[in-house]
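User:
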Amino acid sequence: MGLIRMLTRADPDPEPAPDGEGEEALDASLRAALSQVRMDRDAALGVPAMAAAAEFTAGIVSALPVRLFRREGEGVVELSDDVRCALLNGDSGDELTGPEIMKAFTLDYLLGKGGYAYVNRRGNEVASIHYVDCRAVGIERVSGSHIMKESRILVDGASYYPWQFIHASRSTRDGVTGLSLVEQSCELLRTASATMAHEQAAVRRGGNRRGFLQSDQKLTQEAIKSLKTAFARMFQRDGENFVVLNRGVSFQEASETSVEMQLAENKQANSDDIMSLLLIPPGLIRGGADEDDRDNHTRYSIMPMLRVFEAALDRALLLESEKGSHFFRFDLKEYSKANMRTRWAAWANAKKNGLVDIDEFRRE
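Assistant: Predicted structure:
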């Protein structure tokens, strides 16, 4: 009895594989796909979970207004009419608005060497703020000391001092460059990307499973070639929807391998792991998150990052005479606006206990 192993896909002349090696062949194909994946920022953003998690985080940060405060005795006063707040929250003087700069800055912080924005000064006044793509930034080490660190920031062939930029880097060791999520979790992202590539291969072959052609008698090479061509036409786009088999020839679908059955589970696990990189409860993006998920995300993911950004704003935008008495803060109240019931209940409680006056209550 002759036995022909057929791969039911659009390839006109698929390579035969020995019986009993389907799972091993699929394992090998996944390993080969993984070895060919070149992981960089653009490739990482091609993974839907990574793109969603990064955009989700950057979107939150860009939606938060930046406030400037001054300490006066035991209290603080907001400087709502300061030009620096207007630049950060509205027209920055750049092609990008303030919120757009903050979003791009956050994405560079997460996925690149760090976020960079040039501060254009006229004397002691900040005239404009300009986003600089981290991929256009170079770093020159002026000092080789691990204690007295000194560097220059290079952009378009010009050298600048770090204090001329609002800059922040993730997991930095030198203050000007950091470790991106892409570098830190390259293998996870490569695995997720390779899984997508394997899915795409399945789609290209029409979503059909592998199988066998079984014959009661030995077939000639011409008959084998004719059958292969017929099956290839069937799985092509707009191809024929049937194949006529000769007498004694039957098709048997191959059983699903354990690797194929695990692909969907692995894809879900990879997605959850990517969300974990940014400390995002998956339910916040997919739906179904509760208040604890939201609070934990704010406390453990958003607030530590905002604290880094606030220190960067203080260092770059405050005059030396203002440092210690003035400080920038992101207004997290904006993050709670979507939950009106909780927001109003909190303000009503503050009003009832005398923590805010009636005018502040009405304004908020």
